[in-house]
Protein 1
Amino acid sequence: MLKQPQYKICRRIGSAVFSKCENPKFTLTPTRARSKKGRPRQLSEFGLQLLEKQKARYLYGLKEHQFHAYVKKALAKKGANPVLALYGALETRLDNVVYRLGLAKTRALARQMVTHGHITVAGRRLTIPSYQVSKGDVIGIRVGSQNKVLFNDLSEKLKNQSTPPWLSLDVSKREGSVVSVPALNDYSETIFNLTSIIEFYSR
């Protein structure tokens, strides 16, 4: 798991990439940074691209080498749009899907749930947060974990859960399924610019 001083990161990159920073106190203009003397300064093109990369990396809780590996695979995918390929790979990580379905309130908690063996894919327990789910996969809670305190009141919470179009949630079963691949309209709702990220690594 990526462990970082979250408030400090939120102030530096100017975006609420962590749930604990999602309040006005930590909202800054994303295109500006501060010099060592504390004065605002305009970022260069490289700086802006680096900022977008950091937003995405921290949002998904990935180390640099992990994130770079996703970008390399997206760029190497023949006949594919690297922007959509990257977005699809990040979104279909098992820990992210658990979070998107509302089974966990944060991606960090979702990653912990997967690592501790509480989550199943197609009825099989998986402990790999980076596992890539596919269309048709059903993601649920392991039978032996259903009554744990971790999942108390989950059914009630799921009633108000909003999931992206590529996922389907069954509140009564407390499970969800992948019905399609993440699409461009899903990408438009993100807080970072994937095109800038691809350009950053293409230098």
Protein 2
Amino acid sequence: MDDREALAYLADREAIRDLVHRYAVGVDRKDWATVRACFTADAACDYAWFRGDLDTVLGHIERGLAQFQTTMHLLGTHLAEVTGDTASAETYAVCHHRLARPQGLADRIVGMRYLDGLVRTALGWRIARRDVVVAWQRLDPVPA
């Protein structure tokens, strides 16, 4: 790989990382247009709790997150492999969800990995396939 190819490869990997981060920011801001724009129109998703086409999955995400006062998706380890106009990426996430319950506030915390199949489009990289693997989750009461 020459320098020009290496720079293009690194630029693609950074664009993919940016896309995954844009998704997390969109979810936490409940900016559904931004979230939708991270995917291809025909994306297929399996979020462990629900699966289906993009409209079905985004509907589940929007309704599911409506129960929380706030969320914060923290992204960590990220590995992307680019092959031409397709790529795969694995991103670790710890997702915090603040929930108001009759007995008081609680934090639902989920450790998971996003496994993404991506394609280069005229608008940039987009997620065509997403699988979410849940490693652990817990519900912690928030001290008064």
Protein 3
Amino acid sequence: MLEVEGLQVYYGDAPALRGVSLGIDDGEFVAVAGSNGAGKTTLLRTIVGLNRPRSGTIRLQGKRIDGQPPFKVAEAGITYVPQDRGLFPWMTTSENLDMGSYLKHAREKREETLREVYEIFPVLKERENQMAGTLSGGEQQMLAIGRALMCRPKVLMLDEPSVGLAPFLVQKIFKNIKEIHMRGTTVLLVEQNVRAAFSFSNESYVLENGQIVLEGKGKDLLENELVRKSYLAL
């Protein structure tokens, strides 16, 4: 479904990604974990066209999308939920969700998709007339994910959805993401919470200093000595 090969990204003269390669099969749940500054957000931003790679390729279903503007990447089928959620605070929950269905194929199935979003996040139905800026942190994260789903993506990319949330909400959000995956959406998750991310994912990667240093099945990596010492404090 999505293939990243030899990706090199720089901020000025400083390398942010150094030859990153990874692949995601159709219907897979892939997690990328790493510490702050490892390059996780840069990876997602580059895939969606917000950063331009110096070299390397990005393919969606075999077609190159590297170097394309973000709206073209969205049209191709990738949606991105940024760490800051990117909501419109002075618009209602319903209006924010509506903004997610601006693509032609998404508009045609807006009502069907909206029902699915409300099934996954019933609280959004309860808050549909409430201003997004007045929602709790957990509700705002649900709204950001729900709006991305309104695009009917082939690949849903999430950047640190657990940031700033209480532990019980983190588990709830991850269960929601797993449900989205079980309904057929391919998921690429970037996350510092290694235990949660790897427990839910199929394939997983560890990114350090802009390079992939480990890859494998999520639950297998939780037993890896480097992961246990560096990320799980065991």
Protein 4
Amino acid sequence: MEQGGDEVIYPELSYKIIGIVFEVFNDLGHGYLEKYYQKALEVAFGKAGIKYKAQCPYSIKYKNEIIGKNYIDFIIDGKIVLEIKKGDRFSKRYFDQVNSYLKVTGMKLAILAHFTSEGVKFRRVLNIRNY
């Protein structure tokens, strides 16, 4: 893919994921802890037949030494990172977090989804290292 192209990465799967995120919000509404949105998404992905892994651990390394561990909210079909947040604003910290997940997994796409008081907001984040 050339830079500046208008091709959408994994369009069908990413639209399904975003649709399910909206479905969960429409059913639950605003105000729950993030862990309940996570559990609801697990149920919804299962019912939709979407392959996923939840709370995927990975090691943080420095010079080949493990210095910590973190968890990715979801890896969908081995292709897309889904990170969910509760709150009304996207912060640089969340984008940095998602970019680190893309770096460690080598995946091309992440979706950062926020459950806000005004509904769901989301951003698609591309792994620029893969282009």
